[in-house]
Amino acid sequence: MGAPSSTYRVQFTPSFTFADAAGIADYLARLGVGALYGSPMLDAREGSTHGYDVTDPTRARPELGGDDGRRALQKRLDELQLGLVVDIVPNHMVVPNPWWEDVLAHGQESKYARFFDIDWSSGKVLLPVLAEDAEDEVHEHYLKANWRRGNTELNYRRFFDITELAAVRVEDPEVFEATHREVLSWGVTGLRIDHPDGLADPGGYFRRLREHFDGWLVVEKILGPDESLPQSWPVDGTTGYDALREICGVFIAPSDRFDGDFHEVEHASRQQVADSILVAEVRRIARLVTGVPFEQACAAVAEVMVNFPVYRSYLPEGSRYWETAVARSKSPAVRALDEQVRADPHGELATRIQQTSGMVVAKGTEDTAFYRYTNFVALNEVGGSPDRFGLSVSEFHQRAANREAGEPDAMTALSTHDTKRSEDVRARLAVLAEIPDEYLAFEAAMTEKHGISEPSLNRLAWQSLVGAWPLTEQRLGQYLEKASREAKIKTSWVDRNPEFDAEVAAWPAKALNEPEVSAFVERIKAPGWSNSLGQKLVQLTAPGVPDVYQGTELWDFSLVDPDNRRPVDYQVRQELLERIESGWLPEVDDSGAAKLLVVQKALHVRKRGLHGYRPLHAEGPAAEHVLAFERSGVITVATRLPVGLEQKGWQDTVLPLPGPEWTDVLTGRPATGDLASLLDRYPVALLVRGES
Hints:
GO terms for molecular function: (1,4)-alpha-D-glucan 1-alpha-D-glucosylmutase activity. Residues 48-68 are annotated as: Disordered. It is a single chain. The protein has 692 residues and is an alpha/beta fold. Among the domains are: 7-91 and 170-239, Glycosidases (TIM Barrel, Alpha-Beta Barrel); 98-167, 2-Layer Sandwich (Maltooligosyl trehalose synthase, domain 2), CATH 3.30.1590.10; 262-372, no CATH class; 435-521, Orthogonal Bundle (Arc Repressor Mutant, subunit A). The chain is 43% helix and 13% strand. Strands 14-13-12-5-2-1-16-15 form an eight-stranded parallel sheet. The relative contact order is 0.09.
């Protein structure tokens, strides 16, 4: 089975089931989608709105319709010639679950004891589930303890700092078979593998999976800006955060007005994570280091993980990343740690430090530093690099050509269930880089009226407000509560600051009622729409397999989860699609119908098959405002840096078109290389050879 032409991601919840997905399948087919891409479909904790808290991997989730519902969905997709891509979670399961309960009942004698990554040296599993004033409950095979002991004494591996998600040892063939048998029997088009960096041996896991699955295989691997997937992994590519960084970056103007020392903030954030919420993991690794005092070993382990230039290495592959982390570290025991890891790169010490480095980097960078370093938050995205401001057109072309040559079937994305803010929020915020003085003056004036006392949260709040406008007090309040606690500066999830929490909770009501806010949003709204349409068309036609996150075929101004998992109004979308199918050319306005037009036309062109990559270059005084390329006789044209373009216009700028007649499929009009004419209706164009 080959890769689908495109995917459409849906979030299954008890209120959006397999039957609901089947109900929109015809709409997706008309939209031009190649495959439905679903969040985890195996049984999960009751009421879960995301499905990553799997309780039973041996059956489809009953709350979503169970196996009958799953089969009915696949039947409907087959009828419409749509594929099905499923998200699976090999790294962890939520506890309690039936296997875990058997372990607690029988200890090391349980037939499932080897399924979980438990340190049995103490003889009991520590369960940090009790309130602070409760006595410890001692049982034969487990100990119920104060919840605060989890971060320092936990003796089973978990997903990041979430003690309810216990790691599963899929490197064991028996565990792999038990956890994958059901989903591999479904005959799906593709699999999306969640969090491979938590696995003991990701490469070995993918090789074993390939023995059982010959479909499309993409992995949720967060790559650094100059990092590639290990060549030994038999996968089609990542889930697209690398493409997201590039596509968004090319629509951001270079600017030094938002500069700061991101790496200093990032290093301090990672160090705090290693020294607090992941202490249990650090101590477990340190006990494996021989020949040095325990506390020195702890310091060395933490420092090396804090200094990783990427999420993790895959020794012996990627040894240069390990070497960089060691070279940056100064703890006395680092040399002993390095020697022991190099001596046995597949041993337990090397394995555990690699598994855990990704946790330190993710929690330290994505979930801490990105909420502290808030100079320009459009860059603060999963897989993003806030220190790299914008991307040149030439670098974009080079990276796109590299993807076509090396990983043409990798997924590309602009919004996901894990992005810090949606694609349209980032597109609007990108406008600020073109008018930095104007924005900073606005922010200063607003801060004078209603500033938040913590400066980094204050900057984040104002950018979030204008980026996600319009939004309710409740949505903004929930977001700022999460942002302030993730930042861990004046409050946190673990140690609350009631006075500061109250200040943050009161802020949305004040800020939302300021007329200056709505006036500023009006100033940046239209160029934001231009950026949105440009980056969407580029994503849908550039190398890779594009994913459309649920609902984002219209404007979507969502913030981080759970905001981005709100229900989608498919009735509105179907009504607008019917009008577009009848020939309607919508205006670029608040309805977002223009984006739906771009998505529908591009996805149908995409189904023809696009191959190769040829950069095209505009000529004339506004040439820098064009991003264009050709693939298989299809030309993509997108406007970039629209505020600067407003000030000077296209003048005599042209895009030389190769060969004879071209038609813009968005408007149905004959196309010429005169950009003032070509882009007079929409800021983007999609050209095909011949007459309409």
